[in-house]
Structures are given as C-alpha cells and as structure tokens.
Give the backbone structure.
Amino acid sequence: MRPGGAQAAALASSPSAAGETPADGRAGAPIVRLAGVGKRFANGVTALAGLDLTVRQGEFLSLLGPSGCGKSTALRIIAGLADPSSGTVEWSRDTGGGVPGAHDIGFVFQEPTLMPWATVFANVWLPLRLKGVSRHSARDDVMGALALVGLDRFADAYPRELSGGMKMRVSIARALVTRPRILLMDEPFAALDEITRQRLNDDLLAIKVRLGTTVVFVTHSVFESAYLSTRIVVMAARPGRLLETIDVTAPLPRGQDFRMSALYHEACEETSRALQAAIVTAGDSHL
Amino acid sequence: MAATAPHDAADEATAVHAAGGVSRTMRILVPVIMLALVVIAWWGIVIAYQIPRYILPSPADVAVAMVTDWPILGRSLLNTLWTTFAALALALTGGVALAILMAQSKWIELALYPYAVILQVTPIVAIAPLILIYAPSTEFALLLCAWIVAFFPVLSNTTAGLKSVDHNLLDLFQLYGASRWRTLWYLQIPAALPFFLAGLKIAGGLALIAAVVAEFAAGSAGAGSGLAFRLLESQYRLNIPRLFAALILLSLTGVVIFAMTSLVSHLLLRRWHESALPRDR
Ligand SMILES: Nc1ncnc2c1ncn2[C@@H]1O[C@H](COP(=O)(O)OP(=O)(O)OP(=O)(O)O)[C@@H](O)[C@H]1O
Ligand SMILES: [Mg+2]
C-alpha cells in the first residue's frame, strides 16, 4: 500500500487549499469533518487511506474519481452505514456533537431503492413512519416533499407505474422529507438518459437552494460535477484518498447560461485534468 | 443450509397466468368440452367392451355411487378436509414463526434448521408407523404427519424471502434508526410475502397428499376415517364405483385447495408483484 495518504492530500494543488468560504458566502461552518479516515475491508482491500475532508454548511460538494477509489465507501462512512478502520468522523456541535440525529442525513442510492409493495406516498412517508409519525400527521410533509420533486399527483401510484426518472424523484423526495441538513447522493442519476439527467440536475439545484440543504454528491461525470458543484473533490484510487479540490464559484442555481460560460468550461477542463491525474496515479490495470 | 433449494416464487406464480391472450369464455369452455369428451369416451369404452363394473364402472355407476354413498363419503370427506386444513393452518403459523425466529439469530438457525431438513427429507410413510405408536390418538397422528410435510415449504420459502431483502433498503432502515421489530414488520415481511405465498401453494397440495398417505399408513376404521380409508375399504370389497367416487372427491379437494391458495396469492400480490401483473405490451 502507498504510504502516507495524508501527505498525498497535502500535495494536492488546491486553488483554495484552506477550503475557506468560497464565493457568495454559501459555504459556511463545517458540518462534518473526516480526519485521516481509512477503511480496510475484511477481505484485505484498503478502500480509503488517510482521507481528510470537511463538508461545509450550504455547499454542493462533488466526489469524483476513478471506479473503486472509495467514493461510495466515504459516503457510507459519513452516513454512519460503515465504520472507519482508522481516523475520525466529527460532526459539528449543533448537530448534537458526535453522532447526528437519524434525520439530519438523507441518502439517495444509485438505484431508486423503493419498496415495490408500497405506494409513492408510503415510500416517502417511510422515514417519518420509522420515527413514529402517523400517516395523517405526515401527510403535509410527504405531499410537500412530493411537490418539491413535481410528483404530488402520483402519490397513490406504485413504483412499477413510474419511469426511471420519476422513481429517482421519489427517492429524492423520500430523502428530503425529514428536511435533512445534509443530503448524501451516490451516483443518483447514473442510470438515466442525458435529457432526464439534465432536468433532474436543474431540479436538484433548485431544491437545494430552496431548502438550503448541504449536498455531497458522488458522480462519474466531469460535466455533471462541474455543473452542479460549488466544490469538486477529485479522489485517487488504491488506496482511496483526496487528490485535488476545485472550487466552482458561480452562484446556484445555474442554468443554460452557465453551461455556455467560460467558468463552466474552465471547471470542466480543470476537473478533467485532475481526474486524468488520478487515473495515472492509480497506474494499474484494475480499471 | 444452502443445499435445500427454495421453491421458486416467480415460476410458481407465472404458471397460473401462462394462458394469457385467450378470451374468458374459451378459458372455461375448452376444459369443459375436454371433460365431456373424456367422460363420453370412458362411457363408450365401458359399453363397447362390456367391461364389468368391478373392473371399470361407467360414469353413471360412479355418479350413482356418489349419490347413494354420500352419507359415508361426505363424512369421510369432512374428516380429510379437517385434517388437511388443520395441518395447513398449523404449518403456516409454525413455518412462519420459525422462519421469523431464525431470521433473528444465526444461532437459532444453526440449531434448528438441520432438524427441519431431516424431518422433510425422511419419507413420511417411513415415520408414520412410529408416530402412530406414540401419538395419543389416530386423528392426532394424521394431523402430525400432514403437518410435518406441509410445514417445510412454508419454512424454507419464508426464510429465503426474509433474507432476500434489498441491501440498500436495509441500509436505509439502519440510517433512520429503525428498530429490529419495525424492520421486520415494514421491510422483511412484505419482501418475503411472494416467497411465502409460493410456499403456501405447495404446502396446500402437500397437506392433502400427506393426510391421505398417513391414513393409508394408519389404515384405521371408525368414526374418524377419511377418504383414504374409504379408498382402501372399497378396494377390499371390490366396490369400484365407490372407489372412483372417493377418488373424484379427493381430486376435487386438491383442485379447490390449489384454486384457493392461488386466489389468495393473486389478491395479495396483484397491486405490486410482477408475478401477479399482466404484461402490458
Ligand atoms: N463490502 C466490501 N467488502 C470488500 N471490499 C469492498 C467492499 N465495498 C467496497 N469494497 C472495495 O473497496 C474499494 C472502494 O469501493 P467503493 O465502492 O467505495 O468505490 P467507488 O469509488 O464508489 O467505485 P464506483 O465508482 O465504481 O462506485 C473497491 O476496491 C471495492 O472493491
Ligand atoms: Mg460507488
């Protein structure tokens, strides 16, 4: 294994190395800080080594990197679904110190991950139901979340009656229904066609701005990350670690104008170059 | 553990709906005409070859036996039905309860599953004599035999179903701090339902078969005797029309059980499960 993942992070050429508040003051105080986080699985695979990452209030953070560099693992560690083998995950005091409340976090998987036996309403109700909220009391919140993603007319439909994009919207509504402080998304739009994907990107940004949610977004797409993010973190593989951080200083939400802007193209270029570097660093044939 | 293949839920259920694309009237008409043809051919053969009724009775002889012997046959039918349905009910509760218990702890599963397998793989005819010796009454022995046979498909299918939950959904429940009880109730049980229902269909048929087999083994007479005993008795007395009548009653019972379990399965799954949905084109 490569020694000193933390050093690799320090070597990264970050335009705003200190990671202080980027443009527009959108990113605020740290919400969660990973310090020297390593993850070694039982089968001996080192998925992460010395990952340092701070997620700040209000930012839209993308994790980008070659397949197998530990993006999903990092996200699962933040969510508390996996424990780090080394290092610490520290939540800011106002989420209640060490461990965040179950409803401070929303999680969206690559697949919609809906319960096929339950209606759209019941699927979105689930997080509240698990908290003990009755169907009746949850009604406004659930319908509100469905309205956010434009599916309030489909509350009584079953998942099988929806298109792939609509299912993903339901999944997002479910993650938002608890009004989480931080929304974790693991390649949520990877399986969708380009048009649906762009529309969902715009809707996601609009929702994010409206609710002020902080988003950590895993993607494979340079363009998607440049379009969505206020900060892009490029990771390298074997072992997974932070390679470079790129700030994208255009205000959210963004639109077609932004796609045409020099800023966007610069961000794409820079991200693309960093990703190339990450792939070269990995340097082996695992890809 | 992995050696016992779970009965496939999807295969089971699609079989029922395989006849898609045929109109409703034809779906009823074709089997009815086919039945009529078989009965006519049967009758024709009996008359043409002048077969005596103690070898092959005509449909009319069987119908007469059914009516005149109804007081005997009807009581026996009730006894068989009682054994079958009581065993099925116990198999469902026992199988589901044990599956849920085993899903809670690997240790319980390790301790109990081998015995469930042993009970299943040992032929019931071979255990029946022992059970008859130890059981307090014949009725009880019959019930026990039928239960042993019907219990396993419910157990093994429900166990497979409880384990087949989408891991991402499990993660989601963990993320929201769901208790084990709520995870079971909102996630594992609904996910296991199609598997359980496939097990139910198999168990329904097996309960009847086991009730008959056990009664053959018991060979008992008296107030509690069921259709299987009437079969044996008719054979000894060369009362072949009655034998046929008893046989028809048994087949009908099996068909009704299958129809009932299929209906229950369809009603519970029709809103969401692939197996119960028509394929739109
Ligand atoms: N449960 C596990 N057990 C063992 N190894 C695992 C496990 N989960 C992930 N890994 C390994 O850890 C490494 C990182 O996996 P991870 O899923 O985090 O990568 P990723 O960056 O999300 O990849 P992708 O972009 O393909 O989704 C991989 O080499 C993977 O094989
Ligand atoms: Mg991944």
About this structure: The two ends of chain B are 40 Å apart (CA to CA).
